[in-house]
Every structure is written in structure tokens, then in C-alpha cells.
Design goal:
Shape: globular
Helix content: 40-55%
Largest sheet: 7 strands, parallel
Distance between the termini: 59 Å
Oligomer: single chain
Strand order of the largest sheet: 1-13-2-12-11-3-4
Structural class: alpha/beta
Number of helices: 23
Radius of gyration: 25 Å
Number of strands: 21
């Protein structure tokens, strides 16, 4: 390990590219720019790269991967850019999961049916089958609570051994009964027998494969002599161990991140894993400058991370607008109008985003009625729900400017068995090869982009019938909706309701979104909406090093702003008004806003 942390700028290049490194870079530091230039530097000067090897660049989100690919452009033939799950699935799970066996010698996963990794959705049929196999049907009958528990289980590494448990302990309690931890692997096995693995299983299988067959590490290290990981503060212990193993096998590891922006503890991410990350001969660097935000915004950011070793300086942005607090009661409409008027007065009408903590608040701000429409659809017919959800997700991805990802989403919806026969809700033995699947996906995407816009006020049943006819004309037979709960539901659900209640894991261009979905983005103007009066405490009395993410979540939100930062929330007490004034946040009066 290096003796001390070396301060650099985003324009500095490392002279020694053959040593592992850790870079701490705050918001607006230009770390993506630094990372891209470092990759180019390695491509130009490395003696370790061969015609068969590549640099691996790992990002936390697909949006981040798209940004890196866009900036690298002509160098992509020698750089493999992906999310950690995509990297591990393609390089470890897919080619080697057949090596893992259970106690009887059977493969853990049905590899003939394996085709990617999916969200963990506990369908009614899977829940009933699990209950039957673990013999708890007599004790627990609350399907909704069982579903919530099973959909929130994750693998936890404990002294080299794995535990499968809910992310929140209280989820195990259903009435007077506690779901047994030893029963949870049976739930996973039900999916694995069908060749279905979940996102959280990718890390679990990757760890086990590399631990039980360490020779694979040598192959991976030869293929990827360099691996650079962005947003590493969002890592988890399983991922960190795998990265350390690769480093020990010879790969030059570089991790970049900011512990003050670690906000994914609910997914198992560990801020301390980044803080304590070490490798032999590791050099540590930090970038102090903030090229994004004006001086007033940077002062607030430094207030939030007080007690931290990194204090930023505003370097490129000369704007110094005050930071405003809008008091609002139940009605948010006037506050949104006031925010618009203020932007207009300052010449900042465009390039803005309204951020809030949870999806329900997003829907409130968008004036959307929150319903359980997708959950109800899943309970009525999980196969149709899976197909429709993918198609609607693809529609929204195109609306978000992410066409290639939309095509991939439609391809994922066309699930096939080991013989390339389309699975339910298609019927009959309909063969489709990979080339035909992509062609059909492109046709389907064009169809849904036109059809959803035209039939947004129609019922799902009308849309589904049109989809049935479209696929029939292409030679594919979809099951018709003729009776049962699914028909009743499809007659009641509108297309608009489905669109409004579909939650994308990532968003790129929406102007109202959760804070987590704004990670890595920046805007000229930001309005942070606080739904609860207690939330302001995380700004007045910040605890950036806390095990809880609260302060860091608001730090991420406030740091997205370049020129104008506003906060909207409940009515303030006199004491809190004074405390906000002390940190240069002023209450908005009517005189501030143009009428």
C-alpha cells in the first residue's frame, strides 16, 4: 500500500500503470474523464496486452456503461465495458456453472434452460410449490407477506460461508410464524431446476465457482490483465472478494469511487468495503476539485461531508446563486410552478431535474395514481405478465433514448427452452433461432412503439388482441385471452395505468426521478423534494459516515446541481429556519419569485 494519499487532478495521468490503485473522487471531480484517459493511457503504453486480451471496465449501471462506451468510441475493440453482473455472468457463470454439483452429484442449475439472469419474482405457483416442499402450508397462508419475503432474499457472505436470508429480518415474521432460513435455499432450487437464476445468484455462483475451481482465475487474469471498476463505493463483500482474487492472480486492479456517495446498503453494498479496500503495492489517490457545481453548492456539499478527509473546491463553475428552500404543505403544484418561475428568472429554463427519495413520491410529483396493477397481473398470469412487462419496459427505454437496450429487453422476453422452442405465453412447438429472435424483437419493438401510443387509453385486452394478431401474421402463435381472472383484469386495466406504474431500474432523461436513478447525472437546476419534515435533519445535522445511507442519499441529490439548487419540503420550525440560514439556505419568499 502507498504510504499516503496522493492528490491529483482529473487531467493527471499515472506514470506507473502496472500498480493497483484506488482513487477517491467526489461529485463533479471529472472521474469518468480521468478513467477514460487512464484507459487510453494503458492502451497506448501497456506491454501486457496481447491480441487475445482486453481491458475490463466495470460500471455500476447500464447507463454508466453506455456513457463509457460513448466516450471510448474507437477503442472498444480492446475494452470490455459492462456492469459487474454482466461481466460475471458472461465470463464465469454461463461457461462454468455446470461444474457446481449438489450432494447427490446433480448440477445445481439446469444449464440446458439457462438463458440470462432475471429479477426475483415469487409467482403464486412458485410460492405454493415452495410451501409444499418445505411443508409450511399449514402454518402460513398470507401470500402477500410470503411473496415480499421471498422476493427480498439475498446471499450474505459470513466468514467464507454463504447465508441466504431476507434483507430485512422482520420480513421473516408472518403472523406468529417465522420463515426458517434453512427453507430458503429450496425456493432458489425450484428456479434453478428450470434454468432460471436471479440477479443476486450471479455473485453467489461466481464466488463459488472461483473458490472451488481457482484455475479459472488464471484464465480470467490472462484474458483481462487490467480491470478498472467505477462507482466502487457501491460494491458488496462478495464482489470485493472476487476482485481481490483477480488481483492476486495477476490482474492490475483499479477502483474509483466516493464513500460519501455510497447509497445502496439496501442491496447489500458496503461503504466500508471501499474504504478498507487494499491490495499489495496499492497506490491511493484523491481528486479534490469539483468542476461541476458553483461555489455555494460546493459549500453545502462540504457541510454534508464534514469530518471527512475530502473537502472540495469549486474550480470551473463561476455561478453562485443562493440555495432556496420552498415550504409546501399538501399541495406541491404551486411549488413546482415557483421552481419553474425561478429558473426562468435566472435564465435556466431547460436542463433540470426534480429528485425525491422513493418511487411513491415520484408518482405523487407526476400526479400519478399508485396501484398494484403489475402485481395483480402477475398473480393472474405470470407468463403473460412477464412478456407484457418486457414489452412495456422496452417502450419506455426507447422513450428514454436507449434503443439498443430496448431491443435486448424484447429479446429477453422471447424465452425459449433447450430446443429453441418458444415458452409460454406462446403455444405450440414454435422453433426460433437467435437470428430470427432478434429480427422478431426489432419488428415487435416497432409495433409496440406505434401501438402503445395509439391505444394508451384502451384496455389491456384490446392491446393484447392486437399483439396476438401481429404475432400471428409473423407466424407465431400467442395464447389468446378468453376467460378467467386474466380476462377480467385485462378488461379493467388501461394501457395508461400500466405505463404509469411500471418502474424502470434506471432512467436517463426523465425530469422527475428518484435520487438513486440520478446517480452519475448532472443538471443545471435541481429541486430536491423532501416528503417528511424529519428528512431535513439529514442536511442540518449530517452523518456522512453513518451505517445508514440517509445523509449520503441527500448528498448525492444535492451534488447533481450545477447552477441552481433548491429544496422543497414541509413547513419549517423557527429553529430549523435559523439553522438552514446558517448554512446559506434561504427560505423562498414571494419577493424572490417572479409573479
Amino acid at each position: 500500500m502507498g504510504e499516503s494519499i496522493i492528490t491529483i487532478t482529473s487531467d493527471d495521468r499515472l506514470e506507473d500503470i502496472e500498480k493497483p490503485f484506488k482513487v477517491i473522487a467526489g461529485p463533479g471531480a471529472g472521474k469518468t474523464h480521468w478513467l477514460i484517459e487512464h484507459i487510453k493511457n494503458v492502451l497506448l503504453n501497456s506491454t501486457k496486452l496481447s491480441t487475445l486480451s482486453k481491458i475490463s471496465c466495470i460500471t455500476y449501471t447500464t447507463v454508466g456503461a453506455e456513457e463509457v462506451k460513448n466516450r471510448l468510441k474507437d477503442n472498444l475493440d480492446k475494452v470490455d465495458v459492462s456492469t459487474i453482473h454482466s461481466f460475471l455472468y458472461a465470463n464465469i457463470v454461463k461457461p462454468y456453472v455446470h461444474l457446481l454439483k449438489d450432494d447427490s452429484g446433480r448440477m445445481l442449475v439446469n444449464i440446458d434452460e439457462l438463458d440470462g439472469h432475471f429479477e426475483n419474482v415469487a409467482t403464486k405457483g412458485k410460492v405454493f410449490r415452495w410451501q409444499s416442499e418445505v411443508n409450511n402450508v399449514r402454518f402460513i397462508r398470507d401470500q402477500k407477506k410470503i411473496k415480499m419475503c421471498l422476493e427480498n432474499i439475498d446471499w450474505v457472505l459470513d466468514n467464507g460461508s454463504f447465508l441466504l436470508k431476507p434483507r430485512k429480518e422482520w420480513l421473516r415474521r408472518i403472523g406468529t410464524y417465522y420463515i426458517k432460513l434453512e427453507d430458503l435455499p429450496t425456493y432458489k432450487k425450484i428456479f434453478w431446476d428450470e434454468g432460471i437464476i436471479h440477479h443476486e445468484d450471479v455473485l453467489y455462483f461466481s464466488y463459488r465457482i472461483l473458490k472451488e475451481f481457482p484455475i479459472i482465475l488464471e484464465h480470467l487474469s490472462a484474458k483481462y490483465p487490467y480491470m478498472f471498476l467505477d462507482e466502487f463505493q457501491d460494491t458488496n463483500p462478495i464482489q470485493s472478494e472476487i476482485i481481490k482474487w483477480l488481483g492476486s492472480a495477476g490482474t492490475i486492479i483499479g477502483v474509483i469511487g466516493d464513500p460519501a456517495q455510497s447509497i445502496y446498503s439496501f442491496q447489500g453494498a458496503s461503504r466500508s468495503d471501499f474504504v478498507n479496500f487494499r491490495l499489495p503495492n496499492l497506490n491511493e489517490y484523491q481528486i479534490e476539485n469539483n468542476r461541476r457545481s458553483g461555489e455555494g453548492i460546493v459549500k453545502i456539499l462540504n457541510h454534508l461531508r464534514q469530518g471527512d478527509s475530502l473537502a472540495q473546491c469549486s474550480t470551473h463553475n463561476q455561478s453562485n446563486n443562493p440555495i432556496y428552500y420552498f415550504e409546501c404543505e399538501d399541495e406541491i403544484t404551486q411549488t413546482l410552478l415557483d421552481f419553474h418561475n425561478l429558473r426562468q428568472e435566472l435564465g435556466l429554463e431547460n436542463d433540470y431535474c426534480i429528485l425525491t427519495r422513493n418511487n411513491d413520491s415520484v408518482k405523487k410529483l407526476r400526479n400519478i395514481e399508485v396501484t398494484n396493477v403489475w402485481s395483480n397481473l402477475n398473480e393472474a398470469d405470470s407468463d403473460r405478465e412477464r412478456l407484457l412487462k418486457s414489452l412495456f419496459t422496452a417502450y419506455m427505454l426507447v422513450e428514454d433514448g436507449r434503443n439498443e437496450l430496448a431491443v435486448k429487453e424484447v429479446i429477453r422476453s422471447l424465452r425459449t427452452d433447450k430446443n429453441n422452442i418458444l415458452k409460454s405465453p406462446f403455444q405450440g412447438s414454435q422453433f426460433i433461432d437467435s437470428l430470427s429472435k432478434r429480427s422478431l424483437a426489432v419488428d415487435l419493438l416497432e409495433f409496440i412503439m406505434d401501438e402503445i401510443k395509439q391505444s394508451v387509453n384502451f384496455t389491456l385486452l384490446v392491446f393484447y388482441q392486437t399483439l396476438y394478431e401481429f404475432l400471428k401474421a409473423k407466424g407465431y402463435n400467442l395464447k389468446k385471452i378468453t376467460r378467467g381472472n386474466i380476462k377480467t383484469l385485462a378488461e379493467q386495466i388501461t394501457m395508461q395505468e400500466l405505463i404509469e406504474n411500471l418502474i424502470l431500474p434506471e432512467e436517463k432523461s426523465t425530469d422527475i426521478r428518484t435520487i438513486h436513478k440520478a446517480k452519475g447525472a448532472e443538471f443545471k437546476s435541481v429541486l430536491l423534494y423532501l416528503d417528511d419534515v424529519e428528512e431535513i435533519e439529514n442536511i442540518i445535522h449530517p452523518e456522512i459516515h453513518s451505517a445508514n445511507d440517509d445523509t449520503r442519499i441527500y448528498y448525492v441529490a444535492l451534488s447533481r446541481a450545477r447552477d441552481l439548487l433548491c429544496i422543497a419540503g414541509p413547513l419549517l420550525t423557527k429553529v430549523n429556519k435559523e439553522k438552514l440560514s446558517e448554512i446559506n439556505i434561504i427560505e423562498v419568499s414571494k419577493e424572490v419569485i417572479s409573479q
